[in-house]
Every structure is written in C-alpha cells, then in structure tokens.
Specification:
Helix content is about 40%, strand content about 20%. It is an alpha/beta fold and about 350 residues long. The strands form two sheets. A five-stranded mixed sheet has the order 3-2-1-4-5, with helices on both faces. It has a five-stranded mixed sheet with strand order 8-7-6-9-10. The C terminus is likely disordered. The structure holds 5'-O-[(R)-(carboxyoxy)(hydroxy)phosphoryl]adenosine (KG4) and zinc ion (ZN).
Length: about 350
C-alpha cells in the first residue's frame, strides 16, 4: 500500500509517501518538510495568517517533491491523507483542500487524519508496538496522557490545566532572549550548565493525585528568577543554569505525572507494558532519559519515535492515514477541517481548564 500524507496544521508545510509491505512493515519513500521558522522568528511565535499564506505558496511544490523523491506516480497511490485538524485552521484548510483536489483528480480515496493521532501512531512506523499502550503526547499545543486502545480509540487519563509543555519551553526561551522554537535552544543551553542545581524552580503538580499537568507557574518562576539576576544582558552561565533548572523541573513533573498514569494504565490494561512518548518535546534527550529511567523502575518499556519524526512532518500523517485506511476509514470530500478535534471526545474537561485546548 502507498499513501501520500500532507501536514499543514502549524508552521511546517510537509508531504510524504509511506508504503508498507505484506507483513505490514513500513518504509518512508520520501519525507519533505519545509519549515516556516524564518517567517515567524521575528514575532517569537507562529502567526496564523502568515502560516496559512505560506502553506498556500508552497504546498504544490512540496507535494511534487515528495512524489518525485518517492518515484511514485499519483496513479500508483492507494489513498491520499491530510491533517484534518486540530490546528491553525487556515493551514489545515490548505492541506485538506490540496488532498481533496488530488483525490478527486486521480480518483483516490481521501483520509482525514487527526494530527494528534499522527503523533500517537508514529512509533508503529519503525517498531512493533502493540495496542494498548500508554501515550505521553507532549508538543507545542498539547500535553496529554492517553491510553491508546487502537486506531481511533483513545481514553484520556490526564491533560494540562493551562499551558502545554512545548509552549512553556517556547515562552521561557522567549523571555530569556533565546530563539524560536524554544525547546531545542533550552536543551542546548542546559547541556552547557556549569551549576545546574543553582536555581530551584517548582515542579508543577508533583505529588498531586491523578496525572493532569500545569506549566504556566513554571514559566512564571523562570521569569521571576531571571528578574532577580543583576540588571543588563544575561550572562551565558546564568542562562545555562536557568535553562537546566527549567528542564529539570519540567522533567520531574513529567516523571511524577507519568508514574501516576502508569499505575492507572496498568489497572485498566493489565497486559499493557509500554509508554510511548511523542510530539515535539519528545525530541528532548534529557526528558527521554528521565522517562526511560522511570520505565525501567516500573517494568515498562519506553518507546519514542526517531528524533526527526518527533516534530511535525508528513510521514506521521501518511502512516496514520495508512493505518486508518487499512482499518476501513474513508472520508467524504465534504469533510470540514476541524480547528479542535480531541482524541477522546468523551473525556471530561480538566479542572480549571480554560477551554482553549482540545
Ligand atoms: O509536535 P510539534 O512539532 O508541533 C505541535 O504539534 O505542537 O512540537 C513543537 C514543540 C515546540 O514547542 C518546540 O519548542 C518543542 O516541540 N520542541 C522541543 C524540542 N524540540 C522541539 N522541546 C524540548 N526539547 C526539544 N529538543
Ligand atoms: Zn504536532
């Protein structure tokens, strides 16, 4: 089976062709990602209007590149998949309209993929990871713990009551004068810290029951610690130590929340023994190794996608599209792009949630 996947929900214009063989083993034939970072950098974050226009300018060329790199003709595809949400709606519309046009022109089935499901299933592209598994989804817009029961079947165990962790990385980096996106900059600075224990920052939600998250307080604590430093430009060693403190506090919080989630997961799914970590923040090595440590203690295995498949890309959408297509999903060309699209629509709102997160 060969599927073209298109991703345009945030600031990457991406397309990829993924194939699987008779044994279900996947291969990425192409994975073209055009980052809009340079266009958004001056604003310190993604500007939705700029993102939508840029997707529109580049999507045709990116799809062409993905097809020619894969050496595949449209007539050889089994289906075309695109992120149908959640995300910045202007961008999602561009990707969905492009996929629908290709589907209509080449008489192919169309599959609308939930972007979060793309992150959730990516590990299965490279490794055999059976359902059910526990998923920690940590990205720029989302921070959730879910039980993944199967394709399209999710039970949310916990979510953030305010900011997503990626957002906290980005906002903390911004107030420290580091570049966008903040995650990789903070990670790099933290690695150079000479006194990583110098700043003590609070580890949000640590010790509280359940497995919800909160990261806005940690971002405020970074700001207060930065304001307490001598006036003038930050010294590099202060910056490095502060980034290390932020990363440690964030990782402590994740480990504590995941520990509770593992207990809840094992009660509901006695055979389940895998924690999958996905989304942009899963690219962070310090966080990966802290979670591996936790899993070793809890007799779980920790699995995360290869680094370049953690952040947004087309292969994750092609793969999730392929899995959904094989499970029988077909979407009508009247499918309406969805700015919000929770993986578990029945989950209750998190306590104090402002309602802006899916
Ligand atoms: O999954 P993603 O590419 O987009 C969303 O769906 O949100 O995630 C982007 C987020 C950004 O907030 C970025 O700062 C964060 O992932 N990120 C990282 C790292 N690489 C990307 N956070 C921490 N450490 C990293 N190495
Ligand atoms: Zn994403």
């Amino acid at each position: 089976m060969k599927i073209l996947g298109i991703e345009t929900s945030c600031d990457e214009t991406a397309a990829s062709v993924v194939t699987d063989d008779a044994r279900g083993e996947a291969r990425i034939l192409s994975n073209v990602v055009l980052s809009q970072l340079d266009e958004h950098r001056p604003y310190g974050g993604v500007v939705p209007e700029i993102a939508a226009r840029s997707h529109l300018d580049h999507i045709d060329r990116i799809v062409e590149e993905a097809m020619s790199e894969a050496n595949v003709d449209f007539s050889e595809l089994d289906a075309v998949a695109a992120t149908g949400g959640p995300g910045l709606i202007g961008g999602v519309i561009v990707g969905v309209m492009t996929a629908k046009a290709i589907a209509l022109t080449h008489n192919l089935p169309f599959v609308a993929v939930n972007h979060l499901e793309g992150h959730a299933l990516t590990v299965r592209l490279n490794e055999q990871v059976d359902f059910p598994y526990l998923l920690l989804l940590v990205s720029g817009g989302h921070c959730q713990l879910l039980a993944v029961e199967g394709i399209g079947k999710y039970k949310r165990l916990g979510t953030t009551i305010d900011d997503a962790l990626g957002e906290a990385f980005d906002k903390s980096a911004k107030l420290l004068g580091l570049g966008y996106p903040g995650g990789p900059h903070v990670e790099k600075a933290a690695l150079k810290a000479t006194n990583p224990d110098r700043f003590k920052l609070p580890s949000p939600m640590k010790g509280k029951p359940g497995c919800d998250f909160s990261f806005s307080g940690l971002k405020t604590a970074v700001r207060q610690a930065a304001e307490a430093l001598p006036p003038g430009p930050f010294k590099e060693e202060d910056l490095n130590d502060l980034c290390a403190a932020f990363q440690t506090a964030a990782a402590d919080s994740l480990v504590n929340r995941c520990k509770n989630a593992i207990k809840m997961f094992k009660q509901d799914y006695p055979g389940g023994n895998t924690l999958v970590v996905a989304g942009g923040v899963a690219a962070n090595q310090a966080i990966r190794s802290r979670l591996t440590e936790l899993c070793n203690k809890e007799k779980m295995q920790m699995v995360a996608p290869p680094l370049k498949l953690c952040t947004d890309n087309g292969a994750m959408i092609a793969w999730a599209g392929l899995e959904a297509f094989k499970a029988g999903q077909r979407d009508d060309l009247s499918f309406a792009p969805r700015p919000r699209w929770p993986l578990d629509p029945d989950a209750p709102k998190a306590a104090y949630a402002g309602g802006k997160k899916a």
